[in-house]
Amino acid sequence: MERFELTWSDVESSTILQVRFTCNETRTGKLVVRFKASSDVYIYDDVPINKVFQFMVSSSPGSFFAKEIKNSYKYTKL
Prior knowledge:
By secondary structure, the chain is of the alpha+beta class. Helix content is 22%, strand content 44%. It has a five-stranded antiparallel beta sheet. Strand 3 (28-35) and strand 4 form a beta hairpin. The N and C termini lie far apart (29 Å). 18% of the residues are buried.
């Protein structure tokens, strides 16, 4: 798999405004999340591409993020 990039995309969520994702042949990458209430931006490292796809198609992206991503991956607040 070559490099994959999801440019800033809006998310239908009450807590998350937008996300961005970039990965390469490792099939893991950086998930960048911008939150609605604070406009804070966090970068989550080494997130698998399949986890990002599950998040994006989830019926409740905010809940999926809280359960599956938020405390499962190393992150940096910008």
